[in-house]
Amino acid sequence: MPILATIVPIFAVIAIGWAARGRGLLPPEFLAAANRLVFYLAIPAMVFSAVARASLEVHFKPLVAAVTLGTMLAACGAAWLAALAVGMETRLRGAFIEDSFHGNQGYIGLAVALYFLGPEGLARASILTGFMMILNNALSVVVLQLHAAGGVRGPGGLAAAARMAKNPVILSALGGLLVSAAGVGLHPVLERSLAILAGMALPLALLIIGASLSFELMRSRLAAVLGCSLIKLLLMPAIGLAAFLALGAAPEDFLPALILLATPTATVAYVLARQMGADHEFAAAAISFSTLLSAFTYTGWLALGARL
């Protein structure tokens, strides 16, 4: 599919969400409820359906999964070193590191995978998303715990594990894997019901992303926000792509992973930063800036991927 025909509609809907919030069409109380609807129902329905109908032998590649997770760890390490090198204070450093690797796979990554690669790409991306979300959450808790300021402590290991065990996207991916591995298939009634629910997932998710954008906090943190976004949007996918090519992975196998690695910072990064005493205002700025910048970086990554 032409790259601009993938990217422009996605970010047009995000822009519509931002404009609609400004006109009062998407008030905060609606956004809170809509976000719960997407996170707990629509996205899980889409992920479960895509993974359950996938063939693990065809759509799941352990090498790609291992490289993807290793790339996330490498990006985390690079951000940590960069933050130490410039002498960031503790609260900012924690948010900077987390925002440099914690991507928005569920809301933006899956949308790009579906609209650029089609159902096959969505199936591969959905399987990977489950693994990436587990590492995202675990690594975020560790990073923020180590940088908690003023004695603020976030959830411990057991609490964090319990939260991940109840994550609906992770559960839907694991459930889909079980159905696919069992080879039982989905009943047509269930499959169509899931398709109806899944149909609202990405449009509503993109509107929510747009309505959540905030630009007021960028100016005072522009250098750090730019550095964080460059690690997330350029360095992280570049590390992954170099590893995929060096290990001889097929483009059809690793392009979904590249799309997920190139996602902007996840909105949940703000929630975690605020909960655990990190610089949540920086997180809000990084989310907004990286989301805007990803319209251009995604264009470049998809153009490169199309040539492989």
Describe this structure in words.
The protein has helices at residues 3-22, 28-52, 56-59, 62-85, 90-101, 105-146, 157-165, 168-182, 188-199, 201-212, 222-246, 251-261, 268-275, 280-306. The chain is mainly alpha-helical. It has one domain (3-306): Na+/H+ antiporter like fold (Up-down Bundle), CATH 1.20.1530.
Order of helices and strands: HHHHHHHHHHHHHH
Classify the fold: give the CATH topology.
Answer: Na+/H+ antiporter like fold
What's the overall average pLDDT, rounded? Answer: 91
User: Distance between the terminal alpha carbons, to the nearest Å?
Assistant: 15 Å
Number of separate structural domains: 1
Proper CATH architecture: Up-down Bundle
Gross morphology: globular
How many strand segments? Answer: 0
Radius of gyration, Cα only, in angstroms? 18 Å
Low-confidence regions: none
Q: Helix fraction?
A: over 70%
Q: Structural class, please?
A: mainly alpha
For the record, what CATH class applies? Answer: Mainly Alpha
How many strands, what sense, and barrel or not for the largest sheet?
A: none
Q: What fraction of residues sit in β-strands?
A: under 5%
Main features:
single chain; 308 residues; mainly alpha; 14 helices
